[in-house]
Amino acid sequence: MSRGSWACAGMRSAGGQLLERAQQTGWVRSDVTVSVIALALGLAWAAELRVHPSRPARPPLVP
Predict the structure, then answer these.
(1) How many domains does the chain have?
(2) DSSP helix/strand/coil, 46
(3) N or C: fewer beta carbons within 10 Å in the chain?
(4) What is the pTM of this model?
(5) Model confidence band, residue 1 (pLDDT cutoffs 50, 70, 90)
(6) Digit-coded pLDDT (tens) for 4-60
(7) Enclosing domain of residue 14
(8) Count of Cβ atoms closer than 10 Å to residue 36 Cβ
(9) In a domain, 61, yes or no
(10) 28 within domain boundaries
(11) For 29, which DSSP code?
């Protein structure tokens, strides 16, 4: 999903609103941005895709 797509823009907007509420209540630090959240989610997703001996091998995302 490109950063300029409407779906991405909508998710960033909704995530920004949730992040702002969490910051106002003190659950999230004020210096955290939507980009930091997106990075953390991307890293978690990538870690989940790693090959583990107990999992069957997956085809590469990009051939």
Answers:
(1) 1
(2) helix
(3) C
(4) 0.58
(5) very low
(6) 677 778 888 888 999 999 999 999 999 999 888 888 888 888 777 766 667 666 666
(7) 6-49
(8) 13
(9) no
(10) yes
(11) -
Does any domain span residue 54? no
Asked whether 34 and 22 are in contact (CB, 8 A), the reply is no
- Does 59 map to a domain? no
Of the chain, the end-to-end C-alpha distance in Å amounts to: 18
Q: Round to whole Å and give the CA distance between 25 and 19.
A: 10
38-51 pLDDT per residue, tens: 888 888 887 777 66
Q: Helix (H, G, I), strand (E, B), or coil: what is residue 24? A: helix
Q: What is the DSSP letter of 1?
A: -
Q: Write the DSSP string, 6-22.
A: HHHHHHHHHHHHHHHHH
